[in-house]
Amino acid sequence: MGAEQPRYRDVLKNMLRDVFNFVFRHPPSKKVHFEIDKYSLHILEEMRYGGIFLTAHYGNHELLGYRLAELGLPLNAAAQEQKPKFFDRWLQKKRTFKGKCFAKKIKTRHLIEFVDNCGLFAMLADQDYRKLIPNSIEEKCKSEFLDLKVRSNPLPAFILEHRPNTPVFCGYIQQIHQTQTLFLEKIPSQNFYAHYHLWLERLILENPAKWYGWFHNRFLSASF
Fold first, then answer.
1. pLDDT for 1 beyond 70
2. Looking at the whole model, is its pTM more than 0.85?
């Protein structure tokens, strides 16, 4: 994988713009045109019946969650409780569509029930995972990304261990001027993290400064 690390200032410029839009221009105004990539339409219909949705710190992922909820998908995005409390309440308000928060923490024991009820479990999957992983799914959480060996979050593997036929999707929002376009892809459930990382690497090759993981130290010391 030959992705060249972009200049820090280019990544920071993109990130600050996305943060500004999330804080001051969210929800999006009607002046912003939203569309769905024509090759993603049939995938969107599959997602209405639930599954696993993996995205990344690529572009405005907060906007992505809002758009998926706006499209009526049965979404619950994984979220960590933030401190202080007032900041967490503010975030939950921002992550709400028509009175329903689409980014609440789900306890692991409730995940299978959520998926059984045709829920779409979404999460940012481009972070190195350092906590203990059960032996039964440990190998499914190992992959390669940007020429580094990584360990990823075990929650998707946990779901697939119990419900192996659960579909897995990934996607992102691309914004050019006042037009936002949703791109979706379905990936195989077998060895899904390898397919996910290949998908993300393609995006990074197209626009390295859009991925905010370069300076997060997530994949700098992975070892098995």
1. no
2. yes
